[in-house]
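Subject: Protein record for review, amino acid sequence with backbone structure tokens
Why sent: The fold of this protein is of interest and is recorded here as tokens.
Notation: Tokens come from a learned vocabulary of local backbone shapes, not from coordinates.
Attached in line: The record itself begins immediately under this heading.
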Amino acid sequence: ELDVTSEKFTPLRVLYAPNYKITDAVPKVLYQNLAAFESALKKFGIWQLNKRQKSETGSGNEKKQQQKEKPSTSKAAFAEVPQRRFELHQMPTTSTSNKKHQRNIFTYMETSVGPLALLKKCVPLPKAKDPVPSTQRIQVRVVIRKHGVVGGSVEGELLAFDKQWNLLLRNATEIWKRRKHNYGQQNICDTPVDCSDRLKELGITPPQMQVKSVNRKNVEITRDLPQVLIRGENVVIVSLIDNP
């Protein structure tokens, strides 16, 4: 159920799985957005998505080059061909291959400047290059907004970010406040759907919420999340938390 290529793949189990990775291998092709992924999926299919497509002209040129490199059996080939001596400025120039610049989320995080550059030291490196243990990494606190007011905050370890301030956190703790009694029902996003029964069928335990009374009217709610993706449009401010 955690295999993306399987027919029994369940997204809900992936969302609640701690430290889930799609694959440990570095992909050969990284798509910039969902539209590019959908167009490649329709054109090449699911099994050809992570493979670079070779052009037919390139294969034809390789065959011609291999035929030229074959040793000739004629007597003229064994004869010594006179060579002309050239100066350094008369030698042919070496051509550079015009490779397309690969830019993705990983290269953007490495070359980010400005306020986003401060988030680079919070992102953990691969295990072979990361000398800092997980207990000493710098955590971040993200203040989230809701309809016109501050909706709470999320604290956790930063895994990835982009220029739109979309943040991916793990081992996060979400804290927000609300009224003790709801005086009105808000159907902003249609009727809410309860998926607790579906989670129980999959054997997934949703995060437990801890409710603490703040005053006579408000309560503070805390819950732990294994991983969470915060959209940039909901981010108010991001601050770094130094571990004591």
Notes: The beta strands are 139-145, 150-161, 167-179, 209-213, 218-230, 235-241. The chain has six helices and six strands.
